[in-house]
Fold each of these.
Amino acid sequence: MVTRGSRKEVDRAQADKYRRVGAALLESAQALADIADSDSYGNAIAVVAVHACIAYNDALSIAWKGVKSTEGDHTRAPDTLLFALSHQAPPERVRQLRAVVAKKDHVSYQGTYFRTEQATRLLNDATGFCTWADEIYERRPPLAA
């Protein structure tokens, strides 16, 4: 069952701004991973990767339904994606998004040391979701004239 959660209406023309932010965040996370050594503190990589997924989630939700999650709990953001895309959101991509955003508090606020290797695994999951999001974004409904 998909619960509604908190969301707000957003002009669908704004979707590309969120997609561009997501792409920039993903690129930044990859750049951080590229310069990190294996024993580095990887939390920054992970945090940026999580936020890339959140931005892509918003881009798709806005592009398809003109809504954006306003949940303080980012783990509920995939519910908005399901609302916006319905059957077009493959369960494996929704699970991938849920797994990534579920780590947000862990890597951001709980004082857990994330090694580069752990962060790179999270980045790989984020990249998978964001790559799919970019592909489906290109198939978004046209804006009304």
Note: Residues 10-137 form a domain with the Four Helix Bundle (Hemerythrin (Met), subunit A) fold (CATH 1.20.120.330).
Amino acid sequence: MYVPSDGPADRFVPAPGVLHRLHLVEYGGGLRLCEDETGLLVGPTDRRLQQAGLYVINVRGVQYYPKAARRADLSPGRPLRLVPEPDNPHDPFAVAVHPSYGKEPIGYVDKQKARHLAKLITGGASLTVVSLRGTGVGVDCKAVAVLAAAPEVVAHLMSPRPPALPRPAYLR
């Protein structure tokens, strides 16, 4: 039901001028990437996603910000923001995850991805961030996952899958 993690390193990298061959689909109460041609889900830890400019992040430290997480709408598909914190005393490359409207973080990007994302953001890259897994306003939240990518990429990924494509494998 998942794309094999081995195979071509550029499997998810689109040709110039071509949109990604992926879409987000509802799965298990959240959103997952689904490959258009095969209908297979793409594992959130697939290392080839970053090469395609797609950053799937399991937000760390949500348990330390329960009030902020409870106030935020972290439902799948909701917009969020990544905010670099160069003055963070623990890590100058720290990147906080904020609700689209709040000043208080709900957690942080893990260190491995934060360094790269901090450089992208401070270098002027425009990233749109959406929740893949989380809860609505007023609900305790224990786990949040987000997707960050260029705005036009996120818009495409969130658009409905064309009906001519094979059904997602988990629905067959």
Note: Residues 111-122 form the longest helix (12 residues).
Amino acid sequence: MTYEILIALIGFAFVSSITPGPNNLMLMASGANFGFRRSLPHMLGISIGHSFQVTMVGLGLGQLFVTYPVAQTILRVLSTAYLFYLAWKIANAAPPSEGEAKGKPLTFLQAAAFQWVNPKAWYMAIFAITNYAQGDGVLWPALTVAFVFACTNFPSIMVWTTLGTQVKRLLTRPSLLRTFNWTMAVLLVLTLVPVWIE
């Protein structure tokens, strides 16, 4: 991988990781409801899970969508159903002080598994591998792209969790928190619009 390609990959990884999307909206809601520390497994699950996804795409998994176009439709339906479920959980979340049973942050494994039905994560992985994976063979180029994403993604998503913890200071009344949660849930659902409008 040339220096120019590496810089371009870092730029793409940063911009695509820090811009709004399902992961970042969920992390902002998690930061506001559960705080930074309790959201850490969620953040690690996103970063490591997406890097694994990038690696698998680089090893040929992305070809599945070319060979079997119906796989795109299946992914679209699964991601829509799961995002609606997550939006419902966000809308009805409550901070631990109001009752632990009302909600809890995503675990590491839940966040990692979510990447496989996250349309933005698939786009990021396929675009990065297609445009930036260079070198001999497929393993090392895929691992290089995944490593760059891991190093760039985690600091980017930390920003959204931190933003959520700062917003929490403004949400001093339960009604304000409910409004924030419903707003985040609606925004999460709206991230599906590009998926269905092609």
Note: The chain has a mean pLDDT of 85.
Amino acid sequence: MRPTRLAALLAGALALTAACTNSPAPRPAASTTEAEPSPEPSTPVAVRKLTSAELQSQWWTWAASTVKARNPVLDQDGRLCAQGQKDGIWFLAGTTGGTVQRSCTVPVGTPVAFPLVNLFGQASDCIEFMDAAKGSATLDGSPLTPEKLDATPIRMYAVDGNPFTSEASANTWSCGLWVRLDPLTPGTHELTIRGESGSFSTGVDYHLDVTKPTPTGAT
């Protein structure tokens, strides 16, 4: 993690101090129908219409919804990629520092969202963090354009034993560089994520396998 008073992590760049603010609770992601290989036309609209607060609240709640031993942000090879995922959006994460390679299966027809580098903490922390934040991402060799989400009040929820916060819920501020993707075409894709702020840097080389989920009970 970043060796300053800011504890940053890419796609999980974290400050472990939370400022108390009043903000609305995050709304759940819109559900996605996965009966057909082709995505529903409304699916990508849902992720792109999320406000900064909604997107970041949902991502941080996802990141803090799993205990340390099974947390996808701490995952070294992608085997924990599906932990805590909900219908509607497939979240990806970076690391708490350094670069790893992960293989991840993504349900067909599901939009993808991830930060290049991000933070939660006080509003003043976000200002300092975003002044130095930069990053890049490529999908199958083509560059993706990140969006800058400055300090935004959010509410996040967490489970006991998660690696990021000791509180069950918190009103705090969040910020970062983000990418939102429409559902990827079925098949394999190579996604490269890099992010940094100050002395902190992190990244992930993702091998994504976009496929129709196996029905429960199938062999």
Note: Residues 33 and 101 are 29 Å apart (CA to CA).
